[in-house]
Design brief:
Elements (H helix, E strand, L loop, with lengths): L2 H5 L3 H4 L13 E7 L17 E5 L8 E2 L5 H4 L7 E9 L4 E9 L3 E10 L2 E12 L12 E9 L5 E6 L12 E4 L6 E4 L8 E8 L7 E7 L7 E7 L7 E6 L6 E7 L5 E6 L5 E3 L2 E2 L9 E6 L6 E5 L9 E4 L5 E5 L8 E7 L4 E3 L9 E3 L17 E6 L6 E6 L2 E4 L9 E3 L4 E8 L2 E3 L12 E9 L7 E3 L2 E5 L2
């Protein structure tokens, strides 16, 4: 079936529903801080401009869209640097952006929950983590503290990795913590002993063996000759286990961590080349990008969002790296600058939502990665696939213009996650893969479709099992 054929009767309605309430599906978000303070050792080439949050199209080069109505703690406006957003995480459960900031001595370092309407921040909750009272990063650098990186737990709580917060404070001198954004509670994760160096990176394995596990990265100061990745279990912490060490030849300053669909670690750094690593091995880039400051993984394709620093052929920019290693510039600093990009996140597309209804087998959408790639205009190979364990039953797929959450629908035992009033495609047999070619028609951009697969499975409550829903937004 073709997506254009499904949407044709209602396309004008679909595309006239107004601005999205949160980050556009599939887009990248970069967190930037004001980095205008010159330092001959730590910051010899300051990034121009104030920081903030910026929305970047994942495949089409263009001008990044700034998020408006942000406070100085996130933008660094009017505050001596370094100050502003240091890391950002997109939370699928509510569409919020979780932002950690950076600031010089004496400033409060916080985690911010940012809600958007279009590209404007319309609600921000701030949770203080402590006060910046560090020693200098280098002998000549102004002291600063920061949230080096943050990551989500399955319940929506946020794990933070912090550098140089003073005592007293809610983290009680620890470098890791768990923040409940619902209650505002900050719980330290004890890491004993604390490894030497500067905390600068974090990734959390929430689903693998022994999960949840925090991986955190530190680099030596002031020599920057070596970086080390450690792990501790969550929430209990304990003695850190050394996972990987980089340097001193070449010297490596670790900047960000990310886990891919195989739970393998990606790492960005400055000091190389190489400045990009996967599972401990150096990864080539074409063209070479120089120093890298931030990293996120696009689950659907395995592509990377990367942020450059200086020197680089694209300084202070956001770049897309395909799994084949080809790098494409997506967005550079606008006139006047946008500070230093320091964190990246991705709003997944396609994206699963809602609860599945299991039977003797469990059925789910196979989205990480999605063999059909991104739902882009012109992607004739776009598809969705259903995975199942055990002895799966044949499936029927339905599509709607809207989502829903209707438990025990019509007494049939399954949760319907499609709006029955907006069904475009009644249950239609499929063999596990649903082919959805997208023609090269720009009028389809922004269209939303919702899919769910149903299976006649005797192990289900009333004989019908179902997948979770999946939302697809045409890029």
């Amino acid at each position: 079936m073709r997506i254009s054929r499904l949407l044709a009767p209602s396309l004008s309605l679909l595309l006239s529903t107004g601005a999205l309430a949160q980050v556009p599906d599939g887009w990248f978000v970069t967190a930037n801080f004001n980095n205008t303070t010159y330092d001959p050792f730590w910051n010899p080439n300051p990034a121009p401009g104030d920081g903030g949050l910026f929305l970047v199209h994942p495949t089409v080069p263009g001008v990044a869209i700034p998020v408006t109505n942000l406070p100085p703690e996130i933008t660094g406006v009017g505050v001596p640097g370094p100050r502003g957003a240091c890391t950002v995480v997109y939370r699928p459960s509510d569409g919020a952006l979780i932002v950690g900031d950076e600031g010089p001595a004496g400033t409060t370092i916080s985690l911010h929950v940012v809600n958007l309407t279009g590209n404007a921040a319309t609600g921000i909750t701030t949770i203080p983590l402590g006060t910046s009272a560090p020693g200098p990063v280098s002998p000549t650098s102004p002291p600063a503290a920061w949230v080096g990186q943050a990551a989500l737990l399955p319940n929506g709580d946020v794990v933070v990795a912090v550098n140089a917060l003073g005592l007293p404070g809610p983290l009680a001198g620890q470098i890791l913590g768990i923040v409940s954004t619902a209650s505002g509670t900050v719980t330290p994760v004890p890491v004993t002993p604390v490894p030497p160096g500067i905390m600068n990176a974090l990734a959390v394995d929430a689903s693998g063996p022994g999960a949840p596990i925090a991986y955190f990265g530190m680099f030596q100061s002031p020599t920057f000759l070596q970086s080390t990745i450690y792990s501790v279990p969550l929430p209990g912490g304990g003695a850190p286990t050394t996972v990987l060490t980089f340097g001193p030849n070449p010297w490596i300053g670790l900047t960000n961590l990310a886990l891919d669909c195989s739970n393998q670690l990606w790492m960005t750094a400055f000091g190389g080349p190489p400045n990009l690593f996967h599972a401990g091995a150096a990864v080539p880039l074409s063209p070479p990008l120089g120093n890298l400051n931030a990293l996120a993984v696009e689950d659907a394709t395995g592509a990377l969002a990367l942020a450059t620093t200086f020197p680089s052929p694209f300084p202070w920019s956001v770049v897309r790296r395909t799994p084949a290693g080809v790098a494409t510039l997506l967005a550079s600093a606008p006139l006047g600058g946008w500070g230093a990009p320091s964190g990246l996140t991705v709003n997944p597309n396609p994206e699963a939502y809602g609860p599945a209804t299991p039977g003797a087998s469990t059925y789910s959408w196979e989205l990480c990665p999605n063999a059909g790639g991104l739902p882009e205009v012109g992607n004739a190979g776009f598809s969705l696939a259903v995975a199942a364990n055990g002895s799966p039953a044949a499936g029927l797929v339905a599509a709607s213009l809207g989502s829903a959450n209707l438990p025990d629908f019509l007494g049939l035992g399954f949760t319907l996650l499609l709006d029955p009033a907006q069904i475009l495609l009644p249950p239609t047999p499929h063999g596990g893969t649903i082919n959805l070619p997208i023609p090269n028609d720009p009028t389809l951009v922004g269209a939303h479709l919702y899919f769910q697969s149903f299976h006649l499975d005797g192990g289900a409550p009333a004989g019908i099992a179902a997948t979770e829903g999946v939302e697809v937004t045409v890029l």
